[in-house]
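Standup notes, structure subgroup. Blocker cleared on the guanosine-5'-diphosphate-alpha-D-mannose input:
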Amino acid sequence: MYQNPSTHQEGASFKLHYGDMTDSSCLVKIIAQVRPTEIYNLAAQSHVKISFDLSEYTAEVDGVGTLRLLDAIRTCGLEKQVKFYQASTSELYGKVAETPQNEKTPFYPRSPYACAKMYGFWIVINYREAYDMFACNGILFNHESPRRGENFVTRKITRTVAKISLKQQEVLELGNLDSKRDWGHARDYVEAMWMMLQLEKPDDFVIATGETHSVREFVEESFKFIGKTIEWRGSGVDEIGVEKGTDVVRVKVNPKYFRPTEVDLLLGDASKAKSVFGWTPKVGFLDLVKDMMTADIELMKNNPRA
Ligand code: GDD
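Run returned:
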């Protein structure tokens, strides 16, 4: 189900319905019509920085929207038939209480996005306990792919580095180069979502790779892919990344990408998912960078305006 209206496609192996997480009656209508057996709630205003500007909207869609969807299932009398997946997030750990983070680590949200997702997390557990619904929270750490939105840091880096390799752009501007994330491949993580809903009993699971890397390392590896080495000079907002051999400035810091409160370090421990349903990630950090760089170079070659 999409948060924003989209087309209804006849003859495809799937159907898109108009829907909106702020509109309860449309959620009820869609569920009554489709009578799904599994619902994956991936609908969200999912950009952390944007949530500081659209805080109320983010709470409506990501927090109360989850409640609307759960209530819509109950209104349709399907609470015993539908399995429900909630896209919870490592952003819940925010200012982390321990490292690595697991299902028992306390939450400390650091953005309106994370606060809204915290409501979503707990309302899922409450409905599971109150109404015996099959509802799971997947606490997914960052998951990336060539389909990642272009204003998230990994895709912003691979798109720009691809353009630099094709001489379509000179420099990449970023915010905090030192924040660290546990980045996995979305393909692996979607499999984990599905596996969760095939269990006998609903539960909450961390999905992560168990490795953490800085934004700076993601930049370095992306440039390495196009045969360039980045050397860092200066510090803070004056730090730059220059291309070894030519001294051309390739990376600059722009404070407009800083967040009012930052999540400095995320590193997940997915051992519960491994022991309960045998999930482990297949794609490592370097292969993730390679996959995204390969796809973006191809994209920019064929469509320089993309
Ligand atoms: N977006 C962005 N743009 N982030 C930047 C930039 C930049 O130019 N420069 C540095 N960063 C830093 C951010 O400050 C943050 O610390 C890190 O890069 C990752 O930012 P994002 O890629 O925007 O992802 P996120 O970690 O904030 O959130 C994503 O992952 C969560 C799972 O942990 C989103 O997909 C969330 O919806 C998801 O819940």
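Discussed briefly. The pocket of guanosine-5'-diphosphate-alpha-D-mannose is lined by residues 46, 48-49, 89-91, 141-142, 151-154, 156, 174-176, 179, 181, 215, 257, 259, 262-263 (CB under 6 Å).
Next: hand off to the docking folks.
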